[in-house]
What does this fold into?
Amino acid sequence: MKAIKDLFLSLTSALLLTLALPALHAQAALPAGSQAPAFELQGALAGKPLTFSLQETLKKGPVVLYFFPAAFSKGCTIEAHAFAEATDDFRKLGATVIGVTAGNTDQVDEFSKLECRDKFAVAADPGAKVAAEYQTLMEMKGKTLSDRTSFVIAPDGKILLSYTDRNPEAHIQKTMEAVKHYADSHS
It folds into this structure.
């Protein structure tokens, strides 16, 4: 009887541990109200290399920072097209858009031309180091990538919006609403 009880306890413990493991790897993105970690990354705008500095860009106004898993993947292309279409509206509100990816980092130059339509910069995040600081990581096919998460950051570095959703559709709407709210309250 003791052997059966011990086996039951072992199996129960193993099951509970197995169920808990995915939660250990899941991270919630930095929430609204947090201070945005400063960073500088290499990237491209309209296919031309650039160095993107969050601190320098915040001096001009709010920043729409969106992380996406990999250049040229289906969802990321849809999202890039949508941000490209909205970039002029973001600019009218004083905001700068920047996309950051840990996937296919060697293709950000081409992605900035084709999928971002020369409208906004894309930065490479090799090893997902910046994504880790923003707590927006995911595992895909054995690789650590940036999850699809959008942030709106005020010029003082405070995160106004933190939105994670693997579906790219609502990211533009959510970030635009946050930028408009910021612009209305600071005009």
Q: What stands out?
A: The beta strands are 40-45, 48-53, 63-70, 96-103, 121-124, 137-140, 143-146, 149-153, 159-164. The CA atoms of residues 43 and 123 lie 4 Å apart.
